[in-house]
């Protein structure tokens, strides 16, 4: 009996021993062992990650992760398969946290709350929360053209602003229009449809994503305007990856600061020649408080 107990206990130790390396394995160790890098991609986050007419993923973030992949092959001196796995706005952070994916680079705002669950890279893009309105409503709805007293006197229900649940818009932008009627949206696609049909007055979201939605639906950019011209609340996007992976994070950061990524960024966002021209905000501007006054700047289109 004692011999059987001893053998069983020894077998248990061996089993646990074989599991420990897997539990403690870093992303780089796993990729080197399996030859597979799994990244999360969104289907609806134009111009960062989206599904095109051929049902293939494209966007700046997709190409950034492809760049990380190619540089990693050089670093590890071996062939690595890049696996694209769809994620959503609801499960993007949990997919990284539970190890379903090794990396997500997309429209993911760097926040203290999410840093409790995942690691963030250095920022690769800065945008801000703005309102998308029809051109004729700019003067009526631009918060920078109204005094604080005028904003507070807006009668409840007179201005309908829609936003997407699960984003930072609710906490960062709603206080600017405390008396507006804020309505939940399922998607920016739904929001633009409701804006065109005058069911709502504005859509609140990250400016660059609103531009992407207009492009996706083939609408005339001149019919709409992002207000205010300079965002009142800035958002830094960073890649997200599992905690306790400092070497992996350093490698991602080195790719973001590389000359190859600078060239890639310009191809997508250069204000004169990019596919989605967008103003590149300075670090000082982006780090300003969301409620600190801004100076008027040129329109984004």
UniProtKB/TrEMBL annotation:
GO terms of biological process kind: amino acid transport
SMART domains on file: PBPb (SM00062)
Protein name as it appears in the record: Bacterial extracellular solute-binding s, 3 family protein
UniProt cross-references to InterPro entries, sorted A to Z: Bact_solute-bind_prot3, Solute-binding_3/MltF_N
Solute-binding protein family 3/N-terminal domain segment(s): 36-272
GO cellular component: extracellular region; outer membrane-bounded periplasmic space
Any single Pfam family the record assigns to this protein: SBP_bac_3
Entry keyword Signal: yes
Protein family: Belongs to the bacterial solute-binding protein 3 family.
């Amino acid at each position: 009996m004692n011999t059987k107990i001893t053998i069983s206990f020894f077998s248990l130790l061996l089993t646990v021993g074989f599991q420990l390396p897997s539990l403690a394995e870093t992303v780089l160790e796993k990729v080197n062992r399996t030859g597979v890098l799994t990244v999360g991609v969104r289907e609806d986050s134009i111009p960062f990650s989206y599904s095109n007419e051929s049902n293939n993923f494209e966007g700046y973030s997709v190409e950034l992760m492809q760049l990380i992949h190619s540089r990693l092959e050089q670093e590890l001196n071996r062939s690595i398969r890049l696996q694209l796995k769809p994620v959503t706005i609801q499960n993007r952070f949990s997919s990284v946290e539970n190890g379903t994916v090794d990396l997500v680079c997309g429209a993911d705002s760097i926040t203290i709350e999410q840093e409790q669950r995942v690691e963030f890279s250095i920022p690769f893009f800065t945008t801000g929360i703005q309102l998308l309105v029809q051109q004729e409503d700019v003067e009526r709805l631009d918060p920078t053209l109204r005094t604080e007293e005028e904003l507070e006197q807006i009668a409840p229900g007179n201005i309908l602003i829609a936003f997407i649940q699960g984003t930072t818009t609710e906490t960062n932008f709603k206080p600017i229009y405390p008396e507006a009627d804020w309505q939940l949206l399922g998607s920016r696609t739904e929001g633009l449809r409701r804006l065109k049909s005058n069911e709502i007055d504005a859509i609140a979201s990250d400016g660059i994503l609103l531009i992407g939605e207009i492009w996706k639906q083939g609408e005339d950019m001149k019919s709409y305007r992002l207000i205010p011209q300079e965002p009142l609340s800035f958002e830094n996007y960073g890649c997200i990856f599992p905690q306790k992976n400092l070497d992996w994070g350093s490698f991602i950061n080195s790719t973001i600061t590389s000359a190859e990524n600078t060239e890639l960024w310009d191809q997508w966002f250069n204000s004169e020649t990019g596919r989605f021209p967008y103003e590149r905000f300075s670090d000082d501007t982006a780090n300003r408080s969301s409620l600190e006054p801004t100076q008027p700047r040129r329109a984004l289109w």
